[in-house]
Amino acid sequence: MRLSRIPRPGPSQDEADPVPGEELLSIEGLKVAFDDGSRRTQALRGVDLNLHAGEIHGVAGESGSGKTTVALTTMGLLPRGTHVEGSVRYRGTELLNISERQLRRFRGRRVAMIFQETSTALNPVMTAGHQLMMAARTHLPGTRAEARDRVRAALRDVRLRDTERVMSSYPHELSGGMCQRIMIAMALSCGSRVLLADEPTTALDVSVQAEVLDLVKGLVASRHLGVLMISHDLAVLAQVADNITVMYQGEVVESGPGDVVLRQPAHPYTVGLLSCLPRLHGRRGDLPELPPVGEVTEGGCQYQPRCALASLECRQAPNLASVADGGDRLARCWKSTSVLAASKRGSGGLPRVPPATRATEPSLNGAVSLENESNP
Question: Looking at residue 277, what DSSP letter applies?
Answer without folding.
Answer: S
